[in-house]
Design goal:
Blueprint: H1 3-16, E1 17-24, E2 34-43, H2 46-56, E3 59-63, E4 73-79, H3 80-90, H4 98-111, H5 124-141
Antiparallel strand pairs: 1-2, 2-4, 3-4
Helix pairs in contact: 3-4, 4-5
């Protein structure tokens, strides 16, 4: 992919996107969480989400709003390995979502192996690492003013 396209895609992710960890508890398991690294962009113009899907894979779904004065919303998303691959390409160009991307990339080795433990409890150290990554992503993605940044004067 061309550098220009990567820079454009990173700008879209910075402005319209979300880099997050979706979590859920498997049925009958109160301790372990399944963590799914996710990169998504929502927009009311399907050309944008289709453009992203053509370059990074993933899927596009539409939230129809019949009878509403609001436009339909199209959501492009990539998860797990496709998310990691997309973030590796976009990382040099990201500004606003760079910290979230770095957290996901640094923690991906213990986020994406939940299938290894299917039917078994996760080791306690893995649960702690996942919880820390979830907490950090939630802090970075919270609404309101960004976390305090110390300026170098």
């Amino acid at each position: 992919m061309k550098t220009r396209e990567l820079a454009y895609a990173a700008g879209i992710v910075d402005g319209e996107g979300c880099v997050t960890l979706r979590t859920r508890r498997p049925w009958g398991n109160e301790v372990s969480r399944i963590c799914v690294p996710t990169l998504m962009v929502c927009n009311t113009d399907p050309r944008l989400t289709d453009w992203l899907r053509a370059r990074f894979g993933g899927s596009v779904c539409c939230s129809l709003r019949p009878g509403s004065h609001q436009k339909d919303v199209y959501r492009w998303s990539v998860v797990n390995r496709q998310c990691r691959a997309a973030l590796l390409l976009l990382l040099p160009f990201l500004i606003l979502k760079k910290a979230q991307a770095e957290v996901l990339l640094a923690s991906s080795r213990y986020l994406m192996d939940h299938k290894t433990y299917k039917g078994h409890s996760l080791p306690p150290e893995l649960i702690v690492k996942r919880a820390a990554a979830i907490q950090e992503i939630r802090l970075l993605n919270r609404r309101g003013p960004p976390p305090a940044v110390t300026s170098q004067s």
